[in-house]
Amino acid sequence: MNKRKYCLILATVAVTAIAAFKSPSAGVQTVIDTRLEPSQAGQDPKPRNKTFIDYFLPTSIIGSLSTNVWGASTVGPRDPQNGLEDPSMKKWDYWDGQIIRGSDGRYHLFASRWDQANGHRGWGGSKAIHAVSHQLTGPYLDQGLCWPGNLDGKGHNVTALVLPDGRYAVIVSETRPGTVFVSKSLDGPWEQLGLIQVATNQFSRLGRMSNTSMMVRPDGNFEIVPRSGAILISTNGVLGPYVVQGRSIYPEVAGLPLETLEDPVVWYSGGLYHIVVNGWKPRKAYHLTSVDGIHDWVFRGLAYDPTTDFVRYTDGTVNHWFKLERPGVYIENGHVAAVTLAVVDVAKEDEKGNDNHGSKVIVVPFDGVAMDRDMQNDATPTRPAASPATAK
After folding, report:
1. What is the pLDDT of residues 1-40, one digit of tens each?
2. SS3 helix, strand, coil % of the chain, rounded to 5?
3. Helix or strand or coil: residue 6?
4. Which pTM does this prediction carry?
């Protein structure tokens, strides 16, 4: 067969294939996912697996959508009854956010606040507060300071969890050493249990308590992931001592963008340990998983991005906050049911106080059941469960 004839045959086959694809009578139904990752721009469309951002669900409208509220017009019509905010923006900027559901059915949100007149720079004087709601998505009503008699309520990087003995713990860091407060009731009173201790080893400098996220592991031990991205494990209770298991995990995760990572949140669901970590400069967050919560973290892709349409209501209205930080997860029946995010409507340096700009905590529903199912169906590297490093 000469070259010219061979080329004609190939061209005929290609035309026939295209026609079959387009023709309704061809009897073939083809579905192609043409969503592209940024790195694929200009290339042929390729299928893409779901990432964390694809599992956010539309938020029900509790009150009504309004543009007559504080904030930049670029946010769009929004429901001020979602999450926790000062609707007048005359008193407080709110930040952080972690939800625990009480035995009474109410939802308890632990967060921080500071005087909005100080603008976003006022976060250095933030104080830990407790808010409650009868609905997961809000509105959350500020109940006041958690520990007004302890350094006047001082606390930032606020997070919370249920301890194995049934007590509740609230942890703060950054503006004061990693400090644990405990109570038998979500309504308090809260007493300072002590400071988080980090055992001395070659990696202990990575154990500075900043952006601290803490969880109780299925084995009953405690795990902390701070801003550094190191994994800290305590086999001796909530105060530790915690042993830093090695270097920061971030540089070892293939494909993970490494620019300005902070605000990690760690949890366990669907047979995997998860971390969502925020890149403050690119304003995007990323999702990682591990089989044992210590080693072999795998990059799962985009977790959230404020320029996309993932914060949306059931009527299709979309909100675009300028920044989304300090993610927290609310877990129900073993799966993430909602994500809390601290949001600001403009760049932080442009939020100067008494200027109709500010910050709040939003609550976005999440389909963690579907995500965990899909994660389990994915082929992921496996590794036998390893014992954590211990102090030497």
Report:
1. 444 444 444 344 343 333 333 333 333 222 223 233 333 3
2. 15, 35, 50
3. helix
4. 0.85
